[in-house]
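User: I'm putting together notes for a lab meeting next week and I want to include a structural view of one of the chains we've been expressing. I don't have a solved structure, so I'd like a prediction I can at least talk through. The sequence is below, exactly as it appears in our construct file.
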Amino acid sequence: MPGLKAGFFQRRLFRQRYVCLFRKEHPFAKEGMTLKSFTNAEQVAIVAKGTGHSMVDDVIQRAGVARRVRLTVPHFVAAGHILQTNDMIAVVPEAYASRTLAPFDLKMAPCPVKIPDIVINIIWHARNDKEPVNRWLRQLIFDSFSR
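Assistant: Thanks for the context. Below is the predicted structure for the 147-residue chain, given as structure tokens.
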């Protein structure tokens, strides 16, 4: 969480990479995806303000890659619905992508632009650190979601 101030603790749950998501009948499904084809593809950009996902656009831009953004959406949840009916692509976290493949008839591929892995942490305020119920809940979340 960018901008998180002092007084918080965190524990890593998992890391994941970013991938490109597109429909099964997309030309990339047969031909594969290159940096050039990624640059030429119309894209759905996820603009999740206040989250670490904003670094995706920054990294792509710093790499000198111009994107053809046709549509922006405020959250990943819309991507599956949008991508299933056209030839746009989206750059999304792999965990989200893997859960959308079957329901929306999509495929995923490694992103041709090297984007740092996203780290998912559980975060809590210091004033709750020693509360037994909060400790129990944090451990339950860790046991359920950590890899």
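A couple of points you could mention at the meeting. The CA atoms of residues 95 and 133 lie 29 Å apart. Strands lie at 8-16, 18-23, 42-46, 68-73, 89-93, 106-110, 118-125.

User: Perfect, that's what I needed.
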